[in-house]
Amino acid sequence: MYLLAGNGSTARWWDDALPHFHHYRVQALELPGFGDNPEPPCSDLDGYVSALIAATRPGNAIMAVGVNALLVLHALQRQPGHFSRSVLLAPVGAFLWQRRLPALMSPLPIRKTIHWLLANRPTLFASKFSRRSWTPAQYQRMGEGYARCRAFVPYWDLLRASTALPLLEWVQDPVELVWGDQDGVLGIEQAAAWSAILARADLRISLKAGWGHYPWIDDPAGFVGWLESGEQGFVAHTKGGRLQLAQMAGQPVPAALVVQSSSDSRLPELLGAAADTLWAVRSSSFSEDQADAANAGLSTTFLRVTPQELSARVDELLGAGVEQVVVQRFIKPVISGIGFVRHLAVELEWVEGHLESLADGQVSPQRATISRLGEAWSSGAFTACHGLTQTMLWDFLQGVLRVFHYVPGDVEWAWDGQQLWLLQYRPISDYGWRRHLTAANIAEILPPQPSRFVEYGQRRAAASIPAIMAGWDARVLQDNEPFTAVFGGASYINNDLFLARLADWGIPSSHYAGEVGGATPHLPMRPWRLLRSLPVLLRMQRIARRHLLTLEQQLQRFDAELAQQVEQGANGQQLADWFSRFYVFVVQGNLCIATALASSGGAALGRPPTAYDNLQNCPHRLPWETDPGTPRPALTALPLQAFPQWPLAIGLAHKVGLPGLRGYYLQVREWYRDNLMRIFFRLHHAMPEAERGHWFAPHPDVRNRDGSFWQDGREGREQAAGFMIYPGQVRGVLGQDILLEDTLDPGRHAHYQAAKAVIARMGGRLSHGSTLLRELRKPSAVLPQVDPAWLGQEVIYRDGVLRRVEQNPPNPEQPLS
Question: Residue 360: its pLDDT value, please?
Fold first, then answer.
């Protein structure tokens, strides 16, 4: 078993525990920059994950603590099964944007001062280390660890809410989380959040009485005895498990007990505490309420069970094959309901009395959708009754959501006339939110039926991509909106992700629609919010611009990783999982470039040529080039291109945040895309020939919705606006001389070069296709309402206006703009 302590640690911190191990042969680890490891600290979390994987052999167990426990989870995400057993004590990573310590340690002088004090005056932190008294030698050993840890100060810069948790919801390995009830650093209330973060892991959770943050120092024999006993705690991803977690986090859960036998010794104590109470007996199966399959209603729920009937009801459920049973105090509600809850909105269904009348189909529920974003997202209202108001219900449901790290959930609640009760929380595996989606932008880069390979990566990356925006506005983490959402089995851009930010900043939605294309619900300009948001917008500009200069190094790293995958003979699944990580990086880079463009303030400082200036002999640029499954020419050497060389004055203007750099940021964006296509070219050829039939086959569900619409299926009533891309005047046949495209695909550059003009029904001012057409100086426009009957007829395009040439007899020209 490997032993890995947290930030500041050294292998010697484990000295007290080592003599007590008998079952495991143990090895204490020191990562780069820690203890005696001579390697310099890593530049990011990915570097530490790679170092951890390189320092450990597959198939062994690991016990890790704090921030380095987070590295274990990322190692499992990257290489499933690498550790045979993963025991993680008080892992760091949940609620990072809301915790005080990371904010306190953000200024470098404070960080260095704390580091010096930990190294030279460790007894000042005795109450944080433990509630027990340690020997002088133990304090000295702690201080020596901090003194020798060169990684301590830079580690705080790496551990950000924007970088801590990507893709962890896809970890499926067994994971054991443990907290001590005396831990003064990270408390057990974080357990519910981790159950939501590790939504698919085989997760068990333990709460140890008397343990602090360093139990292997406080009680080394007891700690090792527990570790070697194999005790794993309760199963987290069950009905009963989530109720226990919610209760630990302070939620109002009726008294409950999870049992596996009617003779459980804890049952008499539970029943005795409320002798005249009625009970609910419910299944808590391991197959129920999972992240990808609800499987609800597979077992009977017994309500109003008397203490005398309870054992028989428990036996009945266990006899039906249920692994666990929840025995819960029965709440007699005057109102009860279900809330489909996300941070931006709550969609409610409720009835008078108990929910059983709804489940049995005896009554139809009342419904309402309440949203932070405005009237377009809302419908109906919760009318106050029996003392319960809409505000009270909203605050309660949002409180439950926060406990589970803002992961959207299905919450069963009850109001007994005095207080609200949480009866159940479960993740939502399939639900048609009132969320606004669009095909704009995504239709430009991916075919209506993308390959299984790209759809796999896109769906896995969707929830992780938005974290990059937390660098300038942490509220995006509370919104917890995915980058893409599914409708009809196909993926679309989730407008709510971006519109929620605009709503908070007071910026009208028309700006967003004009840049990416399509249409959006109305969000008005709110000058006071905009004024209040200026610091956020300035921070956004600074961070996004700074991110551009990191793209080249990260591209080279991923390119090297892909070469290593090829060298090791990676199969299709391994390549698809690698692509999921790469896809997060790709879209996060694009978001930062788009942010830099949006805040660039025009192109007064010049328009240098982009990658489209030279598209000769480019086998990696072809229609639908963004899908690695698209057929490619034979493999040829295509090295990555270096970052554009800017004049000194432009580099200085970039650093100080001057306006006028749109031309240079467009150059970066197309350089970035061209290099991405070079990697996609190699990725296509890396896929084993025998597996291409599966991974490169079209995904079975087709993206068949154009424009914008609501995820629950309702069409949007907003009209996309047309605009001129490049001026000019040409005459020709529509569909032949003048191309009519549904969307602008930059991979069709050869077709656009040959055409007299290009008209698209959908697109944005800052799309890749619009940039290409400007670079080609090709007369072009986005005109959403072109009449399909004009195909094959002679038309005139003039500066953003398309007119049909009337034949005999002549009629007035019919403009369309």
Answer: 65
Residue 590, helix vs strand vs coil:
helix
Which positions ≥6 away from 324 have C-beta within 8 Å? 235, 238, 240, 258, 259, 260, 283, 284, 285, 286
Find the domain containing 476 and state its range: 436-695
803 domain residue, yes or no: yes
Q: Based on the fold, state whether residues 215 and 81 are members of the same structural domain.
A: yes
d(CA 620, CA 623): 10
Domain boundary among 283, 312, 330: 330
pLDDT (tens digit per residue) in 60-92: 999 999 999 999 999 999 999 999 999 999 999
42 half-sphere exposure, CB direction, 13 A CA radius: 16
| Distance of alpha carbon 610 from alpha carbon 618, whole angstroms | 14
Is the peptide bond preceding residue 809 cis, with omega within 30 degrees of 0?
yes
pLDDT per residue over 456-508, tens digit each?
Answer: 999 999 999 999 999 999 999 999 999 999 999 999 999 999 999 999 999 99
Same domain, 310 and 172: no
Q: How many Å apart are CA 289 and CA 575, to the nearest integer? A: 30
Phi, psi values for residue 575, rounded to 5°: -65, -40
Per-residue tokens: 496: 């709510």
User: Are 752 and 776 contacting, i.e. CB atoms less than 8 angstroms apart?
Assistant: yes
| Cα 234 to Cα 1, 245, 352, 620, distances in angstroms | 22, 10, 35, 51
Rg of the chain over all Cα atoms, to the nearest angstrom:
29
In a domain, 137, yes or no: yes
CA dist list (Å): 291 to 196, 202, 483, 605, 702: 9, 12, 18, 50, 24
Task: Annotate 531-543 with DSSP letters as a single string.
Answer: HHTHHHHHHHHHH
Output the CA–CA distances (angstroms, integers) from residue 103 to 67, 96, 127, 157, 250, in the order listed.
16, 9, 21, 11, 24
Q: Please tell me whether residues 198 and 277 are part of one structural domain.
A: no
Q: How far apart are CA 55 and CA 35, in angstroms?
A: 15
- Here the CATH number for the domain that contains residue 217 is 3.40.50.1820
Q: In degrees to the nearest 10, what's the CA dihedral of 27, 33, 38, 39?
A: 110
Rounded CA gap, 769 and 772, in Å? 5
Percent of the chain at pLDDT above 90?
Answer: 66
Which amino acid, 441?
N
3-state secondary structure of 326: strand
Q: What is the sign of the dihedral through the CA atoms of 550, 469, 494 and 697?
A: positive
Identify the pLDDT of residue 807.
64
Q: What percent of the chain stands above pLDDT 70?
A: 97
Structure tokens at 365: 């529920």
Residue 111 DSSP SS3: helix
- Structurally, the chain folds into a number of domains equal to 4
Closest C-alpha to 67, from 186, 184, 212: 186
Residue 817 has pLDDT above 50, yes or no: no
556-587 burial code (b ≥16 CB/10 A, e <16): ebbbebbeebeeeebebeebbbbbbbbbbbbb
CA–CA dist 659, 76 (Å, integer): 44
Smallest Cα–Cα separation from 501: which of 461, 522, 527, 472? 472
For residue 809, how far is the Cα from the chain centroid? 60
